[in-house]
């Protein structure tokens, strides 16, 4: 039973996984769209890998159900699922050549596909991951980045319905990781395969995904597009995990519609979008992104002293201090600097942000 | 002290030992093998190939050794592999050490005593009597090649279990997940991943057991009762009983040559299987 383009490619329905007394994943409900690039993001132990392993068939949910293309697959063992995985440390077979590794999946099919077809598919896969002609190499003759591509080729050659990526870039250095991120994204559009990525690297998730599923303690905290999560985090946990932010404690003064006003330390007022569960009179937290704050010499706003300055090229990041608010970050663009000039550590100035720049969140 | 001198000094004990205990005796044996038996037994200098020409008279010992040593090795392998697999893969890690100790416990007793136990077990009051009580006649077991084979497998099993255990324990279990992920059912993953990756252990175990078996004399002497004898028994007989040292030396040289040839061939073969991969880490 194969669904049409609107039906989900995979679904978790109330999926829970217990390992003895430990609940690794709790009541996960998630619909994965055909052809999307979805990331599970969270710190280690948040259940993201368990979710992935349930989709792959390495773990059976203790409760709930897993659906693949409309079919309940709880009891379908891994080797019979139309799903392939790129493992964290690649798990390439050291006794096989690159080509033998890549053709492994095709060679498991029964009836066996013709040898010529397999060889052609392997060569195509090698070209796709930009390793043409490397088929006869041994695994240990390949660099880390090349091994990563082989692992990718070994998975995509089978044209899986889902491609699962378990921290695939964790072992690569920063530059290589960045290149690979771009390549993966291009590849995903080109192949049209649904990609599911598990990562603890928020930058990676933000730059690559169509949607991100943020997890904590085995549960889904928030799910949405990178922009949604960045602009409208549900709580402090999400705001902290996605991008950089400054947090200020305070008490909610009033809530009007989806906007709230909070009074922070030193009676500084924060006005902005209200997150989940924010009510007047309650303790709350204002989150203001560093790029939403501007630093100027003219009076008005919160008086601050520059503590440190980090030049980032396009931007300059200032760490500033206010006696009431404590230390916080300001990200100033080149243009802003052109107007105000450079601030040196020890300089004083005024930090300002417009109403609506803040997010008022509960302390969760 | 120069590094060169230090290296020389460090290597000196081992070199002296090897020269005195291995090379020199080998040379002596080789020289003796061309000599003649002195009238009162022992060696008298000569140069003759007669001892080698007479090797055929000891054909039975060579035949027994060349049949039972490989057979014993294969039998050890067939029994040891599943055991090692169980210990390395299936057994609860909590119990693993205890189970491993149980495998070596027999070594704490002398092989002599253990062989006596087998004589009793396989003798008239042991297994044959039991079989007789069940009404299947009473087969003669002791002093047969079968008894020697049992003794061999019993005595050498741990030497086969350990190298295989080590290679299986080192096997990255994620490779099996990768294999399953790529559509391979468990039994095929075993054949395509586990088995080839445990070949280094199998090769080491086979080599250890085979080489030691080629020189074995105690087990055939006890359980073969002089009817099933190995080259080792022929050597004991020639050197100690008939005191024909030159002929004994020729037999010993022939055994060394046979071992060199088989072990070299075996190493070539396993290296080809491994595809030149002797020192691959599993990442």
UniProtKB/TrEMBL annotation, chain A:
<keyword id="KW-0547">Nucleotide-binding</keyword>
<dbReference type="InterPro" id="IPR003439">
    <property type="entry name" value="ABC_transporter-like_ATP-bd"/>
</dbReference>
<dbReference type="GO" id="GO:0015847">
    <property type="term" value="P:putrescine transport"/>
</dbReference>
<dbReference type="InterPro" id="IPR005893">
    <property type="entry name" value="PotA-like"/>
</dbReference>
<dbReference type="GO" id="GO:0016887">
    <property type="term" value="F:ATP hydrolysis activity"/>
</dbReference>
<dbReference type="InterPro" id="IPR003593">
    <property type="entry name" value="AAA+_ATPase"/>
</dbReference>
<dbReference type="InterPro" id="IPR008995">
    <property type="entry name" value="Mo/tungstate-bd_C_term_dom"/>
</dbReference>
<keyword id="KW-1003">Cell membrane</keyword>
<dbReference type="InterPro" id="IPR050093">
    <property type="entry name" value="ABC_SmlMolc_Importer"/>
</dbReference>
<dbReference type="InterPro" id="IPR017871">
    <property type="entry name" value="ABC_transporter-like_CS"/>
</dbReference>
<keyword id="KW-0472">Membrane</keyword>
<feature type="domain" description="ABC transporter">
    <location>
        <begin position="10"/>
        <end position="242"/>
    </location>
</feature>
<dbReference type="Pfam" id="PF08402">
    <property type="entry name" value="TOBE_2"/>
</dbReference>
<dbReference type="InterPro" id="IPR027417">
    <property type="entry name" value="P-loop_NTPase"/>
</dbReference>
<comment type="similarity">
    <text>Belongs to the ABC transporter superfamily. Spermidine/putrescine importer (TC 3.A.1.11.1) family.</text>
</comment>
<protein>
    <recommendedName>
        <fullName>Spermidine/putrescine import ATP-binding protein PotA</fullName>
        <ecNumber>7.6.2.11</ecNumber>
    </recommendedName>
</protein>
<comment type="subunit">
    <text>The complex is composed of two ATP-binding proteins (PotA), two transmembrane proteins (PotB and PotC) and a solute-binding protein (PotD).</text>
</comment>
<dbReference type="GO" id="GO:0043190">
    <property type="term" value="C:ATP-binding cassette (ABC) transporter complex"/>
</dbReference>
<comment type="function">
    <text>Part of the ABC transporter complex PotABCD involved in spermidine/putrescine import. Responsible for energy coupling to the transport system.</text>
</comment>
<keyword id="KW-0067">ATP-binding</keyword>
<dbReference type="Pfam" id="PF00005">
    <property type="entry name" value="ABC_tran"/>
</dbReference>
<dbReference type="InterPro" id="IPR013611">
    <property type="entry name" value="Transp-assoc_OB_typ2"/>
</dbReference>
From TrEMBL, chain B:
<dbReference type="GO" id="GO:0005886">
    <property type="term" value="C:plasma membrane"/>
</dbReference>
<comment type="similarity">
    <text>Belongs to the binding-protein-dependent transport system permease family. CysTW subfamily.</text>
</comment>
<dbReference type="GO" id="GO:0055085">
    <property type="term" value="P:transmembrane transport"/>
</dbReference>
<dbReference type="Pfam" id="PF00528">
    <property type="entry name" value="BPD_transp_1"/>
</dbReference>
<protein>
    <submittedName>
        <fullName>Spermidine/putrescine transport system permease protein</fullName>
    </submittedName>
</protein>
<keyword id="KW-1003">Cell membrane</keyword>
<keyword id="KW-0472">Membrane</keyword>
<keyword id="KW-0813">Transport</keyword>
<feature type="transmembrane region" description="Helical">
    <location>
        <begin position="99"/>
        <end position="121"/>
    </location>
</feature>
<feature type="domain" description="ABC transmembrane type-1">
    <location>
        <begin position="62"/>
        <end position="268"/>
    </location>
</feature>
<keyword id="KW-0812">Transmembrane</keyword>
<keyword id="KW-1133">Transmembrane helix</keyword>
<feature type="transmembrane region" description="Helical">
    <location>
        <begin position="141"/>
        <end position="166"/>
    </location>
</feature>
<dbReference type="InterPro" id="IPR000515">
    <property type="entry name" value="MetI-like"/>
</dbReference>
<feature type="transmembrane region" description="Helical">
    <location>
        <begin position="245"/>
        <end position="267"/>
    </location>
</feature>
<feature type="transmembrane region" description="Helical">
    <location>
        <begin position="68"/>
        <end position="87"/>
    </location>
</feature>
<dbReference type="InterPro" id="IPR035906">
    <property type="entry name" value="MetI-like_sf"/>
</dbReference>
<feature type="transmembrane region" description="Helical">
    <location>
        <begin position="202"/>
        <end position="225"/>
    </location>
</feature>
